[in-house]
Specification:
Structural class: alpha+beta
Number of helices: 3
Shape: flat
Largest sheet: 3 strands, antiparallel
Number of domains: 2
Strand content: 15-25%
Number of strands: 5
Length: about 110
């Protein structure tokens, strides 16, 4: 019983703390012909990636730039989708299916504002 309580508390801590770090982009080295080494996306900054790999050009972030197309974002542990949900109900339904959260997109601006 005590072990179950400890495991539950650990999982709760991970569920609260992990999303803060899951959205941080990692940088991947790029070959001279433009191919991306997706299995080596482990560098916290572009400069560190270039220094470690000896890459002359820029490395590539493993995440797409944030979107400002829709008012709601579906946030999972691996990605954030902010260009699809225009009402909270559809976003929250998708969040329940994917064990995610639905949040307001801070970058969204209505046209005409």
């Amino acid at each position: 019983m005590r072990a179950k309580k400890i495991v539950t508390n650990l999982l709760l801590c991970v569920a609260i703390g992990l999303p803060q770090y899951a959205s941080a982009a990692l940088f991947c080295p790029v070959t001279p012909d433009g191919k991306i080494h997706i299995d080596e996306c482990k560098y916290p900054s572009n400069d560190e990636c270039k220094r470690a790999t000896g890459n002359q050009g820029d490395c590539v972030a493993d995440q797409l730039p944030p979107s400002d197309k829709a008012p709601y974002c579906l946030v999972t542990l691996r990605y954030e989708e902010c260009d699809k949900y225009f009402d909270y109900e559809s976003c929250s339904q998708a969040a329940q299916k994917e064990l995610a959260n639905c949040t307001i997109n801070p970058r969204y601006k209505k046209t005409g504002q």
